[in-house]
Amino acid sequence: MRTKLLIAILVCSLAGIATAPGREPIRKGDVAAVPLRGEVAPSMLAFLRRAVKTAESNEASAIVFEMNTYGGRLDTAADIVNALNQTKIPTYTFINTNAGSAGAIIAIATQHIFMAPVSAIGAAAPILPTGEDLPSTAKEKTISYWSALIRGSAIKNGHNPDIAEAFMNKDKEVKIGDRVVHPKGAVLTLNAQEATEQINGKPLLVEGIADSI
Question: CA spacing 20 to 30 A to 115: which of 5, 66, 95, 174?
C-alpha cells in the first residue's frame, strides 16, 4: 500500500517533463519526470544536467528518472553519478525496464529506486567497447576503483553497498545476517521481485514495483 501511495503522489504532483517540448514548465513543488533511455553517453549527461538544473532552479520537489538502458560509457556514468550526488532535491529512479551495467551505477546514485514488474538491474562489470573482457591487470584496477565509487554512492543514498559492489565484482559475496543473498562467482543481476524482497524488515534494494510513474 505504501508503494502504491508514493507512486500515486508522484503522478498527482507531476506537472511537466523538464526538457520535453510542448509541456508546461516546472513550477515550485512539482515533480520533474526525466527519461534516461538508450546508451549512457555524453549526450545523456548533457541532457541530465540540463534537466537537473531546470528542476532545481524552478524549485521542484523531486526528480524521477525513468530509466531504460543496457549501459554504456563508464566515464560518462561517473560524471552522471557525480551530478546526481550533488543534486539538492530528492531523486528517484523508475526502472522501465532495464538498468544494465552503467545504468545500475546511475540508479544507485539516486535516493529511491522503483521497478516495473518485468525489469532488471545489475551486471555492471567493466568490459572493453568491443564487448571483450579487460586485460587482467586493467580489470583488477578498474573493478577496485569502481567498487569503491559505487559503494560510496550507495552509502550516501541509503542503499546496501554490498549489493551495489556485487553488481560489478563477481568475487563479492553478499550476506545479510546469516543468509547468503548472493554467492561469489558471478556479477549480480536482480529482477523486480528479487530486488524488492524483504529481509529483516527492509527491501533488498528497491522500494517497490509499479506499472508506471
Answer: 174
SS3 197: coil
| Residue 11 lies inside a defined structural domain of this protein | yes
Query: H or E element: which one contains 180?
Result: strand 179-182
183 inside domain: no
Q: Is residue 160 part of a domain?
A: no
- How far apart are the C-alpha atoms of 208 and 114, rounded to whole Å? 5
- Enumerate long-range contacts of 168-176, CB under 8 Å, 24 or more apart: 168/105, 168/124, 168/125, 168/126, 168/143, 169/125, 169/143, 170/125, 172/147, 176/200, 176/204
> What is the pLDDT at residue 110?
98
- pLDDT given at position 18: 39
pTM: 0.87
Q: Cell numbers 502504491 label which residue?
A: 4
Range of the domain at 79: 2-125+189-209
d(CA 89, CA 104): 20
